[in-house]
Every structure is written in C-alpha cells, then in structure tokens.
C-alpha cells in the first residue's frame, strides 16, 4: 500500500516448474528397507518462478504497467514506495544476469522508467555485488562494476543518472558495513587498496559521500576484522595473515589512530612444537603480467629439510569468491594433508572473484578453465626455487566445484597432474543448481555447457582418479558423479568410485571419506611406482 493509501501493488506470480530429484537412503537408521527421498531442485534452463508487479487504485481499478523494461525476469523484488506515494521502485534482474535495473513506476499513469542500471556482455554479479541505500527520496547509493572495479556511486533519482563517484581506483569495495545518513559517510571493507600488500587483504575505511579524504581505519599488513564499542567511539582491530598470528589493536573511532596494542585473544592456544608456518607466494599468471597469490604448506618440522616431496593442490575455483586462506589458522585441512607428507599448495587463478571484472570474466561460459593456466605457472615458479617440491609427482583434490576441477585436471592437464580425488563434483553444469550455473554459464543453456562437461570429455582422461560422492547430497545432485563414472566405464577408463552411504555434500570430509582420499593420494604419489 502507498503511504497515502491511494494505491496498492500486488504481485502476480507465475510458479516455477517442478523438477524433483530422487535419491535413495540405502541404510536408514530406523528401518531395514531403503527410503526414497525426493526434493525440488531447479537446474539450468528450467522454467523459473516469475513475479510481476500489478498496480491498483484504492477503488480496485488497475493501472496498467508496461512490462517492456523489466521483461524476462530472473527476479523482480525490493519494492519501495516513495514517501509521497506518487511512485514506487523495484529491482529487476533479467534472466541471464546481463542486466540489473532499478525501475521506477509512476502511480498515476503506470509509466515505468529506469533510475539506474548495470549491463554486461558477460554477467552482472548480482549475487555478490548488488547493494543500494536510499539517502533520501532524491538520492541513493549504488554498487557497480561499470569501470571494471566494484565501487560505490551516488545516484540522482529524479534525473536517472549517476551524479558522482563515491569510491574510485584499481581496487574493490568488498562490502558496505554501515552508512551514516546524517554525517553522509559510508564505512566499507575494501580489497587491493595497498599496492605492497596481498590484494585479497580486507581493510576498513570511512568514506565521505560528498567528497574529501577517506579515513583509514586499519593499517597492518593483513586481513582485518573490526569490533566496535557501543556508540562507535572505539574499536578493536584484529588482523592476521596465514603466516602471522592475530594482532589486536585498540583504535580511535573518529580518526582511526592507534590507542594501544592489545594482547593475544583470550584463550588462544600456543603454537605447537615443530610448527611450520605456511608460506605466502606470489608469481605471474598465464599472461606473464598478473600476480597470482597463494599459499604453500610443508609438513610440520621440515622447514630445513631439502627432501623432495610430492605436491598436492587443494583446489576450489568457484567464481563466487576467492579461496586461498588469508587469515591465520592452526588446524586447516591443508595442514593435516601436509603433515601426511605432502607439499600442499592453494592459489586463486583467473576466473575467481574480487580481483576486478577482467580477472573475473575468464570464467564466463568457461568453468572448465578454472584458472589452471595461472595455477600451473604459479606452482612451477614456486618449485623453481624450492627443490623440495617434486613436480614429477603432482596430485590435486577438491569438492563440489573443486571436484569438477579435480577431474578436469586429468582431462585437460594430465601432462602436469598424475592423480586426482574429486568429491561431490558438479561434473556437468546442466546437472547442478540453477542459480550458480546460470550466473556463470549464462541462459539460455547453450553449447558452452557441454564444452565444460567432464562427462562429455571423460574419454580424454588420463591418470589416477578417485570419485567420491555422498548418496544423500542435496547440494549437488549425486547423479552428476554417477554419470561421470558411467562415462568413464563406457570409455574403459580405470577409476575408483567411493559412494558413502548416509553422507551428504562434502562426503570426502567425513572421517571415512578423508581416510580413503589420503590413502589414494599416498598410494599413487608417495609409494614407489
């Protein structure tokens, strides 16, 4: 209902199709016979729910709205009435994710106009970079990658145009933490603002909306987390790196100045004997220009040991984020794998998020790429000065999208990787959840999906492969792994298939699954051939 009570908006909803996925719980705990489980799970290309705004006067008569400016929606939502009741706005995300538009509708006439929009020939990353904040009826803050970097802009609502940039530079706004409407400032987390630091480190800044100098709230060379005092007068800045335990500082909330350093977090355990810190490493990617950042773990207590050891890559290259850790951690899975006698590596190649639009766009309709060319160059550069990295024995493991990449390593890069363990992989993107795959692979479904399919390309696989899947996975359809295995069987290619009864997504992280994974990697990388 409009604030003045003269109009109302109702949503016309066209329901999505049904797409049931059936899985069998083979050994339920409460009965002998198996149980059939069925859940709804839309996949790329399916008919989705569509929501349309319908405008009515108080007497029940309808005001027709031209739908041309918000046709073929993935979503129409975030409806907001203007304070005077003369118009309302909503956010339109066109299916295919190449157009995101804030639409304003005049209540008297039903005329629709565009306030601000994002367009891209690849994708608009609506899932991670959609944000707006109304400062008044005439102004709003808007997040955009229009110049290739994720930044904030001030929008003149009436004119339907950008009135000024709020942030700028070859760095990205990671998130908006708060907006002070009265002071007209915005507090953000930013990445890549310090040329001498890892571009994935998160820093906090307070930015004046109308221009002027930003206030740096964090300084240390690491990723920062901030906890504010009641009222915001002070804050504790805790920052760390994978190779630096957390540092805690008390700072002044007005100007970010350091008040004093604080001791370690209460109850933080000491580092264990023989602790071998992970090593951060930077090398050029496929283009010889772009820095690729990653981490190297050695077995505990081997800092001065020159013995060559097999290299195992932990991979996850989903375009929704970045994945090589940036904060300190004692007991990550990579550490356990390293302590089993491997050199473990993890890096973020092109196609992953938060390094700018050009870096990110490599994934577009091309999920099989997964940054392999960048990570291979990075691993080779690391080994060039680290003789204890044996590149004649390289393996890879990952789950979900990382499972897709792990199998793909033995299809497209078997000259480099000898062994792979692929857990709960989305081996054909047409089999996986709709939102994630249509965002990166596009809509309508086209031949690019087949080009990235491990199932289609299974006959080209060379090397030792273990496929792991949980029979009750409701994140990635477990049939995707079974179809990959079936394609390998048809091609006569030896592989191991581990189905874990009762397990869901991430079956290789269960005690049994992780043991099978480790045994497989040891058998084919550590034992004599």
Describe this structure in words.
By secondary structure, the chain is an alpha+beta fold. It folds into three domains: 7-211, Methanol Dehydrogenase, Chain A (8 Propeller); 217-268, no CATH class; 279-525, Alpha/Beta hydrolase fold, catalytic domain (Rossmann fold). It has helices spanning 126-129, 333-339, 357-360, 372-384, 401-412, 434-441, 447-451, 479-490, 511-525; strands at 7-14, 20-25, 35-40, 50-57, 62-63, 73-81, 87-94, 99-106, 112-119, 132-134, 139-144, 151-156, 161-165, 172-180, 185-191, 202-208, 215-216, 223-228, 234-241, 244-252, 258-262, 279-284, 291-297, 309-314, 343-347, 389-399, 419-423, 464-470, 496-500. The strands form seven sheets. Strands 22-23-25-24-26-27-28-29 form an eight-stranded mixed β-sheet, with helices on both faces. Helix 5 links the parallel strand 26 (389-399) and strand 27 (419-423). The protein starts with 6 loop residues before the first strand and ends with a helix.
